[in-house]
């Protein structure tokens, strides 16, 4: 793989994504990983990410300079570039001029990693520290007003660095630079694509599961469907899918899964109605992390019960189900604090929400993938568009879209409002433009309204349409006013108890996509 060493950057995952967009497999590793361990992973190239520290501050994360003499091409970005310069004897100091945002860079030598660059490039910068002097052996390729050395390289040693962020779209020639580094400087071929991922994962799944029985928790979303299809390809009939109706589903979801999934794949499906159980466990709970943990735990208990049923049905030859497949994605892992050094933003039900006494061994073939990669695999595996292009819906379902305690009445109300919003957005042809549109019930908030000359005192519904590339960051979608108006009118007319519809116009960050 290509390893991205994470110095605590907001953008480290983004670097990994961009490498994969260049059809090269990449993984993140924490900067605290010993260099011997990094090298033992046999990386074809290494990228050092940005980070919030300054190299000359006490306690600033560094890296064992051995990494620069291992004969592996290294690209340093922003802080990673400064670390490279610092460790190899260059001069790094507070910049006379900090540069934040769009910054023109003068390219003095359009060579090597900057091959074919125009004489000036628009770049995205975020630095208050600059490399004043490159280490010995390096050629300075570019400068900006605030960075005397904005890009440098030592071709003989395979070392490259840039002060700016090539991974963000605001650097128009950024992807080109990453691809030049990977393909030209490091000589890595572009092989990573949907079919190579499938081949790779199928082999891994076979090795992990052997000839044992395995179940897969299906949510109706693309992730678990693709995970199931991959496992089915690997171990065939050893797989049983379990679809849990936890009472927090949207309208028509159970039927949809039967229709889209079972018909398309022919995989054995067991549907379990566990709604009473989930709602009991959630009664009176309004704290989001507790909801998530309870839901995560209930899911596992339900899978355990389903597994016992499968065994008892199989009778004599019945062998215990050892493995549980989950459609966990890379961003779920990172945001649940599972990425090394990452903060726990929220416990995704299938990562941070798992009980400690989990008896299953997990099979998570998508754990290192992003959503767009999962969709590409789904298509390659022959899943229908209805599944592959379904908008994401979180495992905890409507449970984390009722702000306040969950009751049957509130669920029914939200389910209705959600169904109206979905219907109108689809009718307007916006399904693919919008990443997803959570519909949120502010159950404990009441406001005064007037309907049919009567005073009402009801709760608001919030619409949260967002556009995103991978759910790590998002912007609010500019849904046409007419569509919003149609949704608002229908919800207030058809959902008794809702007298206001509000639109959430916050990006992520600072908000998250879901309200809880
Ligand atoms: P946030 O709210 O963290 O959401 O910006 C990012 C994406 O993840 C989905 N999400 C979840 N999916 N289990 C899931 O399966 C969860 O616990 C969970 N929490 C959030 C959310 O819908 C969005 O697509």
Automatic annotation (TrEMBL):
One annotated GO molecular function: ATP binding
Domain GMPS ATP-PPase intervals: 192-390
A Pfam family recorded for this sequence: GATase
Catalysed reactions, as listed in the record: XMP + L-glutamine + ATP + H2O = GMP + L-glutamate + AMP + diphosphate + 2 H(+)
InterPro entries: Class_I_gatase-like, GATASE, GMP_synth_C, GMP_synth_GATase, GMP_synthase, GMPS_ATP_PPase_dom, NAD/GMP_synthase, Rossmann-like_a/b/a_fold
Cross-referenced Gene3D superfamilies: 3.30.300.10, 3.40.50.880, HUPs (3.40.50.620)
Function in brief: Catalyzes the synthesis of GMP from XMP.
Protein name, as recorded: GMP synthase [glutamine-hydrolyzing]
Organism: Bifidobacterium psychraerophilum
